[in-house]
């Protein structure tokens, strides 16, 4: 019996225009009315959630959101951070140096800010909250809590080759996944959505076998592997579809999350 639903955000519960489709909203509302807990599990930073939880109707007392692939668990209403697993600054420094030397797009997430170098004009306009780094080092961040870093490259073959380099320079001691077919997501070892989801479920006294998880990309795979019912949206990557129990007929823009909830929770 499903007691909790965990959904990814980008390319899963929201459409390309950053809106939650009506079918998703209606299904979530009905699930909550049945007493089911609905949470979001995302790679986004705590300050990049914007109004998405409100759109989805999942803001309530004693409800949480998983951010930065599991590095952060935050109260979705009060924004209180209740759990953090940070990255060793020495690793962040090495990855920054690699990105700087190779002229790669690089993002770094702290608890309060997101930084970037070598961003396109399009990214600068689209992500106004990013602090542009104009420096050849990040020593000024050594006392900050580093949640994750990202290398961006739209050429996945090159990105995967860069993963090999990064794994070597960080002693194979970090968690590496992918999102949106262009982001290499790098977290502290052992950080993923599955581990964070287990912590949330333990808090509520819910077994992972009673969880429905929905996702689209590589950074969702660990979560999908651990729950009782896993769903890939129609636009998901092949690996995700192969991992999931079910693939929706709808894509993220048409209400794939709503379809999943209707099938496995509302029995429509």
TrEMBL record:
Alphabetical keyword list: Hydrolase
InterPro entries reported in the protein's UniProt record: Cof, HAD-like_sf, HAD-SF_hydro_IIB, HAD_sf
Pfam families reported for this sequence: Hydrolase_3
Gene Ontology MF terms in the entry: magnesium ion binding; phosphatase activity
Database matches in CDD domains: HAD_Pase
Hydrolase among keywords: yes
SUPFAM superfamilies: HAD-like
Highest rank taxon of the organism: Bacteria
One term under GO cellular component: cytosol
Protein known as: Cof-like hydrolase
Biological source species: Anaerococcus lactolyticus ATCC 51172
Upper classification of the organism: Bacteria, Bacillati, Bacillota, Tissierellia, Tissierellales
